[in-house]
Batch of 2 targets.
Target 1
Amino acid sequence: MDAKTPDQAQWMAVLQHRGGLALILLAVVALGLIAAAGGFRRANASDAARYPEIRAGARAQSGAFALTPLRAWTAAAAPGRQPSGKRYLVLRLRAENLTDSAFAASALLQQDIVWLADGRSDERKAQPMQRADDHTLGVILQPELPSVVDFVWEIPSGQTLRQPVTWGVYGRSFHERGYLQGDGDAGWRQGDPLFKLVLDAGDAPAGPEA
Amino acid sequence: MRARWIPARLPIRWSLVVASLLVLAVIVWLRRSEPGFADKLAPFVLEGRMEQRVEARNFAVYVKRIKLAEAYLTEGAGFGGKPRRVAGDGIWMSALVEVEPLQEPGYVSAWLRTADGRDYVGAPQDRPKVRGVNLGEQELATGLLASGAYFFDVPADALQGAHLRFFWGMSKPGDMDHIIDIDLQLDPEAVHKLRTEAVPMIDLTP
């Protein structure tokens, strides 16, 4: 006896129909292509590929800036300051302003570098950046004039520093001023996260900057 | 079967088609050649030269001369701090200037615009720390002539053809406000002379 359920009969009808068969084949091919492109892999696995990891001494561009992380360390005081009973994380890097203007450039870079406390997220903003040579605040990033600057974070008491330490860097691109009220001023606007800076943070280096 | 109201053959008036395309092209050209929104709100530039007093809406400047130095010796941090050497990432250019607010107290800021359009802003008060001399971020009184200098950390090769610009305020030039543009007359010969006269360090300690 060759009795078919209504569902089976429906499927048979679809398979016997040339258009139905073509649609099923198309769906299989599409799924295969998505799988081949990595569409079904866990997002965690592709994190490193999405955000290139820049190590000490390597130079990377974020659109408005070129950054070369030099070293990182932890210390009992921010560079040039007196110890205050807290621990600080310091990132020293060479920053180049690739735009044609120094107006507000350092304020933009200040927003673009965040410490990723857990290595992937948990963004922490730095204290106002300071020059590495004389520790003055109010850094000016003049166009095409590389400056070595320090970014400083206070490490919350009880927090274990995850090594290597990871910082996230946002991209920045130029937008013309529009005619609409909400368009904002012309300028370099922050975009998506672009790459990571990954450095081991040892104890404070010997020398006056520590 | 075609409806009766549709003519068998649509007449095409090529002269009208060509005229329409021409009008569209002119509209596109006009839209593209009109100034952008930022250009429409751009400040008004008042041009001048060294050793000439130039008056803007709310202030006047007189640029006496400019000078180069590799570094400055300035007072140290805090009370009794040791004098410190302040080097630039490039070379320091100082402009000796007289500046006068005309209507209200406030700040006059300066920046250096290079021949290729790059903008180098004047140094803040604490670098180089030269109290009473560095006019950057210094509040000025109405009607009182302040004599001092603006300092710029610039690449040595950016000087040729550069202009010195001034605006009222601290952050950036205001929309449709005045800016003063001083031609420093930095031709290759003048730049060479400046660099020859540049000293390794100028002592600015009090």
Note: DSSP finds four helices and eleven strands in chain A.
Target 2
Amino acid sequence: MSAGRARAVRLLLPLGAPLLAVLLALAAGALFILAIGEHPVEIYGLMLSQSLGTGYGLGQTLFKATPLIFTGLAVALGFRCGLFNIGVEGQLYLGGFAAALAGLAMKSAPPLIALPVALAAAALAGGAWGAIPGVLKARFGAHEVINSIMLNFIAMALVSYAGHGLFQHATVRTAEIAPAAALPRLDALAPALRGSPANAALGLAVLVALAVGVLLFRTRLGYELRAVGWNAPAAEYGGVSIGRTQALALALSGAVAGLGGCNFVLGYKHWFELGFSGGVGFLGIAVALLGRNHPIGVIVAALFFGALSYGGLVINQRVPRELVEVLQALVILLAIGSQQVLERVARRMQA
Amino acid sequence: MAPPAVALRAITRRFGSRVANRDVTFELERGEIHALVGENGAGKTTLMRVLYGLLQPDSGTIELDGRPVRIPDPAAAMKLGLGMVHQHFLLVDTLTVAENITLGHEPHGPLSGYRRAAAEREVAALAERYHLPVEPGAAVSRLSVGAQQRVEILKALYHGARVLILDEPTAVLTPQEVDDLFDVLKNLREQGVTLVLITHKLAEVKALAHRVTVLRAGEVVGRGAVAELSVERIAELMVGRPIPPLAPRAQREAAVPLLEVHDLEVRDARGLPAVRGVRLDVCAGEIVGIAGVEGNGQHELIECLAGLRPPARGQIRVAGQTVSGRSAREHAAAGLAHIPSDRLRRGLVPEMTLAENLVLGLQHRPELGRGPLLSRRALIERARGLLDEYDVRPPDPMARAAALSGGNQQKLIAARELSRGATVILAAHPTRGVDLGAIAFLHQRLLAARDAGRAILLVSSELSEILALSDRIFVMFDGRFTHETLPSRTDERVLGLYMTGRGAEQGVA
């Protein structure tokens, strides 16, 4: 086979599998819609036009996609180093809480100080929480999956306990943060998005995606991180400290997740609220999977899941909202399956 | 004249666009030993898999004793009297010899289950008949590699094989076991068994076979009586060009020890002592060869010298700098290169590109980027030069290492390690699984490195390689150096005796 064709397969394979998964999932979803007596084309058309076709809908989609970019990147960073960070939910939750605490504390600081400090607090809190399973893995070989899951519960409980004295009377939320620490809404820049909660956290997400891409593919550290993920004995042979790299990868993953909490806390409500994360950390696993652990893929996948999520709200009156969850699950299953199938096809073509 | 016992006629087999066998015709006379030779990937195994029913040809026919047959699967092949002894034995470790041999055809009574005594009797009789000493009641896991191979051969004979295909049967054996195997094979031939010997070791062809068929790139490029072909001629047919002889040895300089090992003890993965007190100096401009049956501590020794396994005791100095107990990175920084024995596990990240693999272990070199950044351009430029110089195919810096053949992966690792400017080079099985042409090339590279004043420690299970390259030779047995000698004063037989721990007792000097 020619080198050109080999390269084409190499480039198309990562695009083909997720696309196939989405199309198949939508086709299967169409059967569900038919089964409850609705018209699939109409429902999908409605979802599409409402989530992407109007300024407000687009804004909602972007808002929902923003934390998914962060959590997808966080999971992808772990995967690239051979680690499964299931603690993203807790890391994001703690990040949001830390951002709120910082925002509350800086009543008199100017925005140039208040906002960066609040963001740094989020990243530090998430990073510290991610570092715990990382260090446990490096020091004792304790499995990061177990520890990161468990730390989710601890994070929830910790915040509930710590928030006890902070929450407004008879609510489960804090007071509003200092305006200087808030992330501006996007409709200030793009009036078409008016009314939607999309905010500057989206820009931050894209910047972080860029940073993760540079880290993974352009730096010495990223090289070592990927080497550990793919073949740890070879990385060790290449002089890489496996434990240190794994701990660092989980800490960075947690920091990215922690920043994800800012979308809601600094960009939307301007306060911390119990249970605000609502599963975006877990959905990040699906985003990373569909996005093939690549920053650009993660952005696209997050937009897709964001649109699905908001589109699901729109069609709520005609089909049950569970449809969206079914679609999400199907996409995940098919993303895994179609990858295998396409790889086999590609091998056969190359053989 | 009787028709050939086996005839494969005009066999073509493709894998996608790659042609593994093109129009291959292969004939076996009854009662002969026929060598099927060729480089890795020449199509030997494919052809034999077609004969054994493991693959179906795209075109071509198979005849047994002049009758056309179809062989849809190995069960059909067995019924037709064909047997195959694979390179990797297919034995159940926990069962006995007799149980393994009779597996699938166990003698059993009308009501009873497996009849152990009957099975062991049958196996003993069969072993007697073919002069294949085995102990029917022994567990296979306790047998030596050579004995396991005899069990494999007996298994095929038990199933009625009259034509036996042996895939690289000597690859796993010690020299003495090779001698024993040759006796067995000659005996089988006398009993009328027809043998196909797949190999790339030409000395074996000369010693054993009557006729030889040479494959190159899926096509038959030569066949004939072994007596009429020289080893050089067969090698030339296999490779497609004359093989240059090894360069004459350059004058050695004054001995400066670059690798110094004192009183080294290393434990294996289970915590048991694997290297028990090794003392060794390797000087600038010399190659020290370590011969030994695999599993006698060579692996642990090399891993420890490379900093991948901590020493339990002792000291390692590289170019005068004590590195024992330090990290792999510090070993490398002191001037150490390492061609590891397990290329897929240690030596490469298969999913990474060739360019990326060529900087494994060099990722912190300042010339490969700026600050924390690695420069893609620097990686690719470096790769282009090295891929060209070491003739790695395809020379595409962005191809994944997993896509290369084993030989090319080995060349990729050699390219990286021999170009890193190290003063000490650890080379563990540097040519394992590599084509003849590439072997000659890698040998020349190692000799050139030696002539350039490097100190090279060579571990190999190929005694011919040890003898051809080394300036001094140690035999490693049970974690110790049991014998030191010079290549001019020894040969494969003597080394082989020491490798099995017998040399000292038998007083061989």
Note: Residues 175-190 of chain B form the longest helix (16 residues).
